[in-house]
Request: fold
Amino acid sequence: MVGMRLDADITIIGLGPAGLQAAIHAARKKVKVVAVGKSENSALMRAEVENYLGLESISGKEIIRVGREQAKRFGAELLDEDVIKLTKEGDVFVTITDSDREIRSKAVILAMGISRAKLNIPGEKELLGKGVSYCASCDAGFFKGRPVAVIGEESEAAESAILLSEIASQVYWVYRELKASQHMLDKVRRTKVEMIQGRPVRIIGDPTVSGLELEGGRTLEVNGVFIALGAKGSIELALDLGIMPDPSGMIAVDADCRTEMEMVYACGDVTGNPWQLARAVGQGSVAGENAAKAVLQGK
Ligand SMILES: Cc1cc2nc3c(=O)[nH]c(=O)nc-3n(C[C@H](O)[C@H](O)[C@H](O)COP(=O)(O)OP(=O)(O)OC[C@H]3O[C@@H](n4cnc5c(N)ncnc54)[C@H](O)[C@@H]3O)c2cc1C
Reply:
């Protein structure tokens, strides 16, 4: 039994920066845009951003707050609800939310972000933002001249270690089994990064990180712990539609942010690396613009 029904030209799923930018660009083309999601769950809500063009330092919360107002001012309708089901009936996309609302639209933009793979060890959650980070390219600057550890096995961890080696006083790369490419490993070996095979069991610190304990009792004295274990796209809704993930588990798009299914677009972290604000808003604008054009051509 479905509750309230809404008709739209475009449904946007996700109210982080990618979804909001898509909403702004689509709504400005005077198509009816309904954007669904909980902005408080956006990755950006936990960010202090220093690497976005034209802004020296700004909180992610502020970007989201203003972005939501902009999207509404241009005519997009924002719903603070989660989508639980997405299907296609003929040419119509049917989106069902957790408030039992049904939205029927001609096009869909997927902007659901990612969830970072977790270590699940004590201290990880408690010290997030206090020395624990999942993004070296976002947070490396905060660790200038200080010792850090990178945890991970694949090329993302290698890249993080290399980047940090130019900024931090000491970089330990802790891995269990190396899976990074030989090319990346050769690059790491030309830096000052110290590679340690081991298993992290606890992140120590109060109120900020002061150490990383490894199995066997060794503790690395570090102020930063970068967890680079990859990410998982929130792609269940795409799978419901029949869109298959790419080999890295993300939603593949072309340069116009089109997915493999007609009238379905995707943008932001859910389409892959680098998981960065600038890329999310860039793709959001492309997806919003192209989805609106496609809807207008079909009218
Ligand atoms: C701690 C931290 C620091 C960061 N620092 C920086 C930085 O300094 N610079 C930088 O460029 N980037 C930084 N980032 C990365 C940046 O925040 C992301 O790249 C950006 O937020 C991605 O935007 P997005 O819209 O694709 O995804 P998100 O911002 O994650 O938004 C996804 C949205 O989709 C919604 N959603 C998910 N599933 C559903 C569903 N089923 N139904 C409805 N809605 C759904 C979520 O609730 C959320 O609203 C940081 C990230 C973190 C976690």
Notes: Residues 5-115+231-298 form a domain with the FAD/NAD(P)-binding domain fold (CATH 3.50.50.60). The two ends are 30 Å apart (CA to CA). Residues 112 and 182 are 33 Å apart (CA to CA). Helices lie at 17-27, 60-73, 136-139, 155-165, 182-189, 236-241, 277-298.
